[in-house]
Amino acid sequence: MISSSVPDLRIRTRNAMPVREGGDHVLYWMIASRRTRHNFGLERAVAWATELDRPLVVLEALRCGYRWASDRLHRFVIDGMADNARRFAAAGALYHPYVEPAEGAGKGLLAALAARACVVVTDDYPCFFLPRMVASAARQVPVRLEQVDSNGLLPVRAADRVFTTARSFRIFWQRVIGDHLGALPAADPLKARLRPAAPLPRALARRWPAASPALLGGDPAALAALPIDHAVAPVPRRGGPEAAREELARFVSERLPRYLDDRDHPDGGAASGLSPYLHFGHLAAHEVFAAVARREGFRLDRLGRLGRPDDDIKRPSGSREGFWGMSPSAEAFLEQLVTWREIGFNAFALGASEGDGPRLSWKRDPTDYESLPDWALATLKKHERDRRPRVYSLEALAAGATYDRIWNASQGELLREGRIHNYLRMLWGKKILEWSPTPRQALEVMVELNNRYALDGRDPNSYSGIFWVLGRYDRAWGPEREIFGTVRYMSSENTARKLHLKEYLARYAT
């Protein structure tokens, strides 16, 4: 049996094929955790390579035919490929960054590499097209395919049910987190001594060539040659693990101390800025937690005692404050990192069927409108035919062409930066509900705009935010209103009174 420090709960074997001990290499198919540090999947692949005394081959591929493929999303991923190429070259692993030049051109590449592999290891990411892609690959590769979860502080399958409120999920993770944070991913799995890998066979390398130095280096002409949406331009910020680590360091040293007081104010500039890097797997939640813990002087020897009655950290069960014994700002940030980020992964990992088992405690796929709570479905249906004060087309909303200056600024930030300030993202969604003919159409518009333009779109966490607008993870609120019913209401007028917005509006409003 392989000796591996990766917890069993994070590993799923996806087919019944054996490990081929006489194969040429161990293959790590990097599809979601696109980084070389704090990566359970890479750590598992390195353990196999060490156990079998075989070279490590890493395939990081980028399709061009996925929905919403654009210069923006491709550039961010390819920036990470450039970082990874340098790290793998220094470690002696064979790294193949493949960017599909035409839709379908990459078909057969995984099978060709797996045909000579001992075992294939890939990432377990429960959203977008990745679950279907891995399920298909599991039926085709001739060796064992393992899928490894590096998504969050909790294994996505630590729970046996889908949680429908933040408080119930918080009570759960506070009870079990100490059992899981004791098993941290290796900070640098590539420190292991790897057997040198031979180059890929010439025929394979000719058919599926590695991304060119120009493409990896950021040449706009190389990106323009790809058959993707060129109307969605790259953002100013660079993608990749190196940029992610720099952003994390700046956040912890400069913005974390004032996070609690300033995070809701767009002019405050206290947001972490980490969600795109977490989404693309350029940064691990474990690395974020470790950086915050160091900044706060948190004693890692407390991890095994978290959640136990004799723990000296004082907190009420399920409370948002006081669990970690850190500063209020750090506790507020970790509430976002753990509760609100990982509840989305809980919904997708256990709520959506991947064709290999039943759904657990969820009516429908969590991207379906009908997966909303019964109370929300009922109140939205009751008010579905209420008169809308204004109705905007998708095109008008995409252009930020409404009467509402705050909303236009939010959309302007999304268009230019690939993100929306956290508080304003909620208002952004509420106004789309107010301006759409039906709640179902509002959902379609939110998904389309978010997934097309947001760097952190197409993610369990961003779907949580979209569906929260319609009542998921929330409760009924009074008074009952037109359009909203008892779904929580927000207005631009109240937002303008509560938040510091002058600089933000000057920068982004049209």
Layout of helices and strands:
Blueprint: E1 11-13, E2 25-30, H1 40-52, E3 56-62, H2 71-91, E4 94-99, H3 109-114, E5 117-123, H4 130-140, E6 145-148, H5 166-181, H6 202-207, H7 213-216, H8 220-224, H9 241-255, H10 259-262, H11 275-279, H12 285-296, H13 328-351, H14 374-382, H15 394-398, H16 405-417, H17 422-435, H18 439-453, H19 460-469, H20 492-498, H21 502-508
Parallel strand pairs: 2-3, 2-5, 3-4, 5-6
Antiparallel strand pairs: 1-6
Can you put this structure into words, describing what you see?
The chain is of the alpha/beta class. The protein has 21 helices and six strands. Strand 2, helix 1 and strand 3 (56-62) form a beta-alpha-beta unit. The radius of gyration is 23 Å and the shape is globular. The termini are far apart. Residues 307-316 and 354-362 have low confidence and may be disordered.
Strand content: 5-15%
Fraction in helix: 40-55%
Task: Give the N-terminus to C-terminus distance in angstroms.
Answer: 62 Å
The chain-level structural class is alpha/beta
Identify the CATH class of the largest domain.
Answer: Alpha Beta
What does the radius of gyration come to? 23 Å
CATH architecture of the largest domain: 3-Layer(aba) Sandwich
Low-confidence stretches: 307-316, 354-362
According to CATH, the homologous superfamily of the largest domain is: HUPs
Summarize model confidence as the mean pLDDT.
Answer: 94
In the CATH hierarchy, the third-tier topology of the largest domain is known as Rossmann fold
Largest sheet: 6 strands, mixed
- List the total number of helices: 21
General shape:
globular
What string, H for helix and E for strand, traces the elements in order? Answer: EEHEHEHEHEHHHHHHHHHHHHHHHHH
Task: Please tell me the total number of domains.
Answer: 3
Widest sheet: strand ordering: 1-6-5-2-3-4
E-strand count = 6
